[in-house]
Amino acid sequence: MQPGLKPAEPIEFSQGRFLRTRHFKLERDGIAVTQKTLVSSRRYHIAYECIPPKADEITLGNTRLLGASIIFSVLSVLCILVWMFSSKSDGWAAVLLWGVLAGGCWLMFFLTRSSLLIYAQNQGALVMYADTPTPDAVARFVRQLFAARNEFLKLKYGRLSLDQPLSQRLAYLELLRDQEVISEEEYRQLRKLQSDAPLERTGPLGFAP
């Protein structure tokens, strides 16, 4: 580091929902994740090799709350029908009871639904909320994450040398292409460079400086 230059600030990101928090910190070779609830805390590391170029996005809801919401709604409708065709005037209490329960369950069901981004491969997985604190904040952190991921993978697998077997060099290039670290055009150019490299040439190829 040159004198007078400050080290880069670590890139961190936090998400929290219903007394559960996740804190993410980008490190040189992966992401440090800290999960906390009221009763537990867990910290683990996810290597960049475990993060694929695309995420699976899913939405999860509490099936018990959904079932309760449907049941209470049906009971509310039945009570309304009974009250309408009955001579009793006190049937509104049952309608109110089941209606309030149904409304509360529906509200909790929609409030607790979670949209998740899941990046999983190589027996590892990164799970994030897709919209917490905001979709724009998540998208900004994902861009920072992939900038760090791609740089790490490029440095680790793109330092190609004639000392390595040709099959290994080509396998590294395929990995970089499949992980979308390099484009198809870059892959073809670098593959040709490896295949055409003269035997007497020494030193690093690919992305090495």
Overall structural class, as computed from helix and strand content, comes to alpha+beta
Helix content: 40-55%
Share of residues in strands = 15-25%
Integer average pLDDT: 86
What does the main sheet amount to?
Answer: 4 strands, antiparallel
Unreliable residue runs: 1-7, 199-203
Q: Gap between N and C termini, in Å?
A: 17 Å
Q: How large is the radius of gyration?
A: 27 Å
Instruction: Identify the strand order in the major beta sheet.
Output: 1-2-3-4
Please tally the helical runs, counting DSSP H or I stretches of 4 or more residues: 5
Tally of DSSP β-strands: 9
Q: H/E order of the elements?
A: EEEEEHHEEHEHHE
Net shape: elongated
Structure report:
By secondary structure, the chain is α+β, with helices and mostly antiparallel strands. Among the domains are: 62-112; 157-209, no CATH class. Helices cover 44% and strands 25% of the residues. The protein has helices at 63-84, 92-112, 135-157, 166-178, 184-196; strands spanning 12-17, 20-26, 30-36, 41-47, 56-60, 114-121, 124-129, 159-161, 204-206. The strands form 3 sheets. A 4-stranded antiparallel beta sheet has the order 1-2-3-4, covered by helices on one side. Strands 5-6-7 form a 3-stranded antiparallel beta sheet, with no helix packed on it. Strand 1 (12-17) and strand 2 (20-26) form a beta hairpin. The longest helix is centred in the last third of the chain and has 23 residues, at 135-157.
